Amino acid sequence: MAEYTTEKSVIDVVNLSKAFGPKVVLSNVNLSVKEGESLAVLGGSGTGKTVLLRNIMGLLTPDSGHVTVDGKTIHKLSRDELFETRKKIGMCFQMAALFDSMTVEENIAFSLRRHTNMTKTQIASRVDECLNMVGMKDTQKLKPVELSGGMKRRVGFARAIALKPKILLFDEPTTGLDPVMTDVIGRIILGLKMELGVTSITITHDLKSAFNIADRVALLFRGECIACETPEAFQSNAHPVVQQFLKGDADGPFLQDPPPPKWTLSRKGTT
Ligand SMILES: Nc1ncnc2c1ncn2[C@@H]1O[C@H](COP(=O)(O)OP(=O)(O)OP(=O)(O)O)[C@@H](O)[C@H]1O
Ligand SMILES: [Mg+2]
Questions:
Q1: Contact residues for 22 (Cβ-Cβ < 8 A; gap 6+)
Q2: Considering the entire predicted model, what is its pTM?
Q3: Residue 258 pLDDT more than 80?
Q4: Cα 48 to ligand 2 centre (Å)
């Protein structure tokens, strides 16, 4: 795909390590995302994908190594500097994480009220614009409880783009959605990249979306980044972990502790 035009790095993850007590979650991870580039990060549950995003956002401090966003080393920034840098990042949380007591409109307007001097009319118009961009026109007055999972994710996207960030981070934007809605969400992410030219990282388990939206695909395994390459190169990568992930096979290096059940699934049923 590679529509990005410069080689300027926007996010650099350099030798990043993070452990919680004795549990090593990230170990010397290196990743770099260029301006306008879309990176998909794959990895099994619990491999540290959300921890990676939280380090980029400055919500966690690395044990060693660092993350730079626009050349600024995140964990060295003062509170105010971190606040400024965070304004450049739109975060789409795992499961949307909307404020349940607020309407769709209030959820999206929240950061605009807090971080800008926009008037009520300007805010309302920006909210409409963001909702249109994610195909959620005329939902301003609804509460999150009235939305389906896919709608919540889209409102989460609208909230993330409200401040016109140059970076978007998506944490499992399609988990729990049906295949059609998964495709819709993938197209919206692609649309945001094309229309807004944002630099993005998308954490996903969905290979089809990853290959559709990403310029490069990375795979985390046991705290390490074992591949980071174009979707085409990734799909022909012979690494046994990459191959197991691509095939979705229970047998292989991914699951060892505990090992997978001994039964295998055939098309005719369980044998
Ligand atoms: N604040 C924390 N304190 C202690 N352990 C943590 C903390 N945050 C994450 N962990 C641990 O780090 C590991 C990685 O967590 P993380 O949420 O990054 O996984 P993930 O790859 O995003 O998984 P999933 O696909 O299920 O969302 C997990 O074992 C988790 O329990
Ligand atoms: Mg996660």
A1: none
A2: 0.89
A3: no
A4: 7
